[in-house]
Design brief:
Blueprint lengths: L4 E6 L5 H10 L3 E3 L2 H12 L9 H19 L6 E4 L2 H10 L6 H7 L5 E5 L16 H17 L3 E4 L5 H13 L1
Parallel strand pairs: 1-3, 1-4, 2-3, 4-5
Helix pairs in contact: 1-7, 2-3, 3-4, 4-6
Length: 177
Amino acid sequence: MSDRFIVLSGCSGGGKSTLLEELRRRGHAVVEEPGRRIVQEELASGGSALPWRDLAAFARRAVAMARADRERMCDHPGLVFFDRGLIDAASALEAAGGDPILAGLAAEHRYNKQVFLTPPWPEIYAGDPERRHGFDAALGEYERLEKTYPALGYEVVILPKAPVGERADFVLARLAG
């Protein structure tokens, strides 16, 4: 199962969601980023589990949602692309001073050994209602994840700064090779 689960991670605003949409367009199963879904739900309900209000509560919700996403996709027969996932959420929780759960969750819930990271790309970075942090915070997040994945035994593949179609071709070629 874990070989079919592909993580797209890296720098906020680096084009993950755009790449995910291209992979969906090409017929692959995709799972949208837990963080964005949580922010949308919290803003709609007036909740406080927002990264700029209560990062630990936000990260705990992201861990729970990422676990549920994995469970939901277990029976899907093909590749499944995750915009972030359990490791990103658990890493954020630990960085926020929450429970040290990363190593245990990472051992229990593996993804494909190749993790694709979007590098910092200031030319396309933009804030929005769900992404209120600046580029410097996105860069710090990227640097944390760039270290976290290899420490857990994953092979980090940095995505090229290229048009989305070329990025999708790159990912699929790496997975086929």
